[in-house]
Amino acid sequence: MKKGDLSPILVNIGFGNVVAASKVVAIVTPGSAPMKRLREEAKKTGRLIDATEGRRTRSIIVTDSNHIILSEYRQGLLPSGSLRERKILQAKKSRGSLFVVSAPSGAGKTTLCTNVLSFMPNLYFSVSYTTRQPRPGEINDRDYTFISREDFKSMTEEGEFVEWAEVHGELYGTSRNRIETLMDSGRDVILDIDPGGPADKRTIPGRHLYICTPTLIRRIKNKA
Fold this sequence. Notes:
- By secondary structure, the chain is an alpha/beta fold.
- The chain folds into two domains: 10-88, no CATH class; 95-223, P-loop containing nucleotide triphosphate hydrolases (Rossmann fold, 3-Layer(aba) Sandwich).
- The protein contains six helices and 14 strands.
- It has helices at residues 33-44, 85-91, 109-118, 149-157, 176-184, 214-223; strands spanning 10-14, 17-20, 24-28, 48-50, 59-63, 68-71, 98-102, 123-125, 129-130, 145-146, 161-167, 170-175, 188-193, 207-210.
- The chain has a four-stranded mixed sheet, with helices on one face. Strands 8-13-7-14 form a four-stranded parallel sheet, sandwiched between helices. A four-stranded mixed sheet has the order 10-9-12-11.
- The radius of gyration is 20 Å and the shape is globular.
- The relative contact order is 0.16.
- Residues 75-92 have low confidence and may be disordered.
């Protein structure tokens, strides 16, 4: 920092999010049992800030205000130092767009989203929450965020899902916070959802794509 320059030293914690370096008390790894308890306590008391945008949590940042920040950067690799507030504001992009792909289970909507993501670098997939158990090869916070039914119910009551549904006895929900954080940072977001559930999917702001299976098309033709 130049002499007379009172701009704060900021730590980039990912996706254009920053925290004042003077506010950071500690940066720790997330895997230990004490850190998991710390996260749960912070979540219950409203002190948890998720800056991963649906990615894997690689480090936990503790601030002097006792807030807990989840970051996708690994401990020791957090970019720090010379970013000034005005430069970050200049780098901010316009708000991103939301694309909603809706289809019955097994219709291929996840495959469609995966293929689109492979050639659109500014498009991000909104990782859903679910109460089912991970399947072989699935990774928590990459494929889904796996939680208990009790936690899912609590999040539903707190209005944390923009939509949720029960599919084959398991609950699936789309995080309102994850979508808003990604879009606020200028990133376009795609998510896939199943029809049904208590929410009217048409009320979700964004561009909607509905995939019709051959069975559904036949039903529509028969009713015509």
